[in-house]
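Run folding on both entries below.
>entry_1
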Amino acid sequence: MPPTNAPWESAVVERLRSAFGAGILQAATYAGQNYLVVDGSICHEVLVSLHAESGFHTLTDLTAVHYPKDELPFEIVWIVFSMTSNERVRVKARFADGAEVPTATDRWEAANWMEREVFDMFGVRFAGHPDLRRILLPDEWTGYPLRKDYAVQQQDTVWVQKNLGIESGQ
């Protein structure tokens, strides 16, 4: 039988719901993995609370998902971990194209390169980031390869011609 979503009830969820009310859109568990869906306007405050009050001192990952047909096409996902309770939580929030997401570098230094990667691959900007610039692709690269509207065979043909001196093989 495949796993299904189930409500996630815990002291952490109760405390967050008490503090943020309707801003906590969903608290659930799927295949043993706990996650929160939060309103984008309070995502930073939720992350700060998880860090300061619940012991989630490790940011293990930060990524994005692109849903180009949705009103809020970017879902940012933070995965935080508490060594004290041996618990991992995913925090998800949705944002409009062009909206700035609050940086998490003020809580976790590890967010620095992860946010740069999301910027480089998706074009999502992080407000307050200390050095937001491309990390994987050249500065002159056009487009964001992990957006679903970036065609599989698309590449910056001008950059390839100028820097590699070849025509695209695609």
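>entry_2
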Amino acid sequence: MTDPTSTRLVVNAGRLWAGGVAAALVAALVAVVGILLCRGVFDVPVLAPEGEGAWGGADTATYALGAALAALVATGLMHALLLFTPRPYLFFSWIVSLATLAAVLGPFAGTADQDSQLCTAAINLVLGAAIGTLVSGSARSAARPVPIRSGPGGPMPPPPPYRRL
């Protein structure tokens, strides 16, 4: 194993953000599928009053866009952590886990029916797991450790970002 003090991460930003955009698309679809499942199959009014149907109103689109935005924010956070923290994956795991926990507990702070609270919490749990694993996986694919080289005048500049074919 490489000594972490003698290496640094080189991040292929294009690869990381392409994965982040893909994670945003998956998150939006998870939100839509979760709402369809709760409303259409279980007949639980999630994010809409009774009678709105399986697709509901604008709240479904807003929820899906919010999920996509959360994935993009997570990608930005991961990028910053890769560049500036000593254990980026550990910090990312903690941050995403705690944010997911807050999103799971949030519905229970309101006055909605218990079925709606449980369905919303379940959707939020799946969203948090999807965003966390997809963004983390994209980051692992886009970052690699490189040794810090020393020359006669001190540290040498890092090599250019790699490209995987």
